[in-house]
């Protein structure tokens, strides 16, 4: 059971309140595919990923980015039981999508950086720590059903 | 399935020295981009360096164990001077990335024999450097700049760790 301080809950809620899921989702997923190109292996059916510009303009990637952010919102709304909230998603990523769980961390690093670029120095070290704690719980929950 | 070229694993501390020099990893354009970004950081090296360190120690508290001899409170002169050293070393190296192995030789020895920082921590600092750059550069720290910088910092960290064993 993860313990959250009031400050951590407040920081994480505040960050989410500032996010446009369409914008941040698209930026985060496309950045991951550009910075860590091997992650493209999971997106064979998504059309043109030939170069950075193609990835950044790809509507299927943008749409999937929104899906990812909506998934994170579920964790936000169930912060005291992320593990169970994500049980099905974990099975999906393991059994159906066959995603190497190391990739979850890559995507979460990209999301942190997209948010830093958006919030500037209001994304303080304390905000970063809280948000990364949240993401590490999410990443752990997503990896739980792998065996 | 896309075949992967040899790339430094995010988990391994030691990489093949050819990839570590950046010869194969960075294009000419990427090297210029990296040098340009770090050149802008030189006048604010203390601020940027202190922020990188503070982000790292706040997000990854285990890293504080290496700083027990310093005052690491926000704004402390120790944090600023130590941060400045790190930023200046990274900036200096970025001016001639192809010579990284030569430029970093003294720092390799320092880290291997004196500081003995577990190299897994290098990637934690590298991540916080990327976050700091993003926070200060905003949209200018676009995916292409991010990718180039991540590769450069990974190579830098790998070279630093080369004399460990």
UniProtKB/TrEMBL annotation, chain A:
Q: Would the keyword Heme turn up in this protein's UniProt record?
A: yes
CDD domains per UniProt: Hb-beta-like
Q: Which residues form the Globin domain?
A: 3-147
**A GO CC term attached to the entry:** hemoglobin complex
- Judging by the UniProt lineage, the source's domain of life is Eukaryota
Q: What is this protein called?
A: Globin domain-containing protein
InterPro entries xref list: Globin, Globin-like_sf, Globin/Proto, Hemoglobin_b, Hemoglobin_oxygen_transport
The alphabetical list of record keywords is: Heme, Iron, Metal-binding, Oxygen transport, Transport
* GO terms, molecular function: haptoglobin binding; heme binding; metal ion binding; organic acid binding; oxygen binding; oxygen carrier activity; peroxidase activity
Q: Which GO terms describe its biological process?
A: hydrogen peroxide catabolic process
Q: Which Gene3D superfamilies match?
A: Globins (1.10.490.10)
Its family?
A: Belongs to the globin family.
From TrEMBL, chain B:
Taxonomic lineage from the root? Eukaryota, Metazoa, Chordata, Craniata, Vertebrata
Any single biological process term in GO: hydrogen peroxide catabolic process
PROSITE patterns assigned: GLOBIN
UniProt lists the family membership as follows: Belongs to the globin family.
Alphabetical list of Gene3D superfamilies matching this protein: Globins
Instruction: Give one Pfam family, short name only.
Output: Globin
Q: Which GO molecular function annotation, any one, does this entry have?
A: oxygen carrier activity
Write down what this protein is called. Globin domain-containing protein
InterPro entries annotated for this entry? Globin, Globin-like_sf, Globin/Proto, Hemoglobin_a-typ, Hemoglobin_oxygen_transport
Q: Where is the Globin domain?
A: 25-165
Key words of the record = Heme, Iron, Metal-binding, Oxygen transport, Transport
**Transmembrane region(s):** none
* Protein's UniProt keywords contain Membrane: no
> Cellular component per GO?
blood microparticle; haptoglobin-hemoglobin complex; hemoglobin complex
Q: Does the keyword NADP apply?
A: no
């Amino acid at each position: 059971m993860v313990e959250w301080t009031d400050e951590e809950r407040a920081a994480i809620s505040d960050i989410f309140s500032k996010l446009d899921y369409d914008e941040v989702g698209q930026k985060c997923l496309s950045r991951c595919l550009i910075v860590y190109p091997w992650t493209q292996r999971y997106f064979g059916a998504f059309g043109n990923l030939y170069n950075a510009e193609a990835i950044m303009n790809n509507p299927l990637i943008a749409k999937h980015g929104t899906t990812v952010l909506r998934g994170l919102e579920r964790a936000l709304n169930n912060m005291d039981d992320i593990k169970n909230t994500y049980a099905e998603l974990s099975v999906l990523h393991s059994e159906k999508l066959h995603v190497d769980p190391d990739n979850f961390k890559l995507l979460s690093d990209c999301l942190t950086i997209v948010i830093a670029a958006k919030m500037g120095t209001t994304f303080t070290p304390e905000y970063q720590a809280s948000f990364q704690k949240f993401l590490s719980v999410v990443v752990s929950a997503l990896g739980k059903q792998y065996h | 399935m896309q075949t992967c070229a040899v790339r430094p694993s995010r988990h391994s501390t030691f990489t093949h020295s050819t990839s570590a020099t950046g010869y194969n990893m960075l294009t000419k354009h990427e090297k210029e981009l990296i040098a340009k970004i770090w050149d802008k950081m030189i006048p604010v090296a203390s601020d940027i360096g202190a922020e990188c360190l503070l982000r790292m120690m706040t997000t990854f508290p285990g890293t504080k164990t290496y700083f027990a001899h310093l005052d690491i409170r926000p704004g402390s002169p120790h944090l600023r001077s130590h941060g400045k050293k790190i930023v200046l070393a990274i900036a200096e190296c970025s001016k001639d990335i192809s010579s990284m192995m030569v430029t970093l030789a003294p720092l390799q020895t320092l880290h291997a024999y004196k500081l003995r920082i577990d190299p897994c921590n290098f990637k934690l600092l590298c991540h916080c450097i990327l976050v700091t750059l993003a926070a200060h550069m905003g949209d200018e720290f676009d995916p292409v700049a991010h990718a180039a910088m991540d590769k450069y910092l990974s190579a830098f960290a790998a070279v630093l760790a080369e004399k460990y064993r």
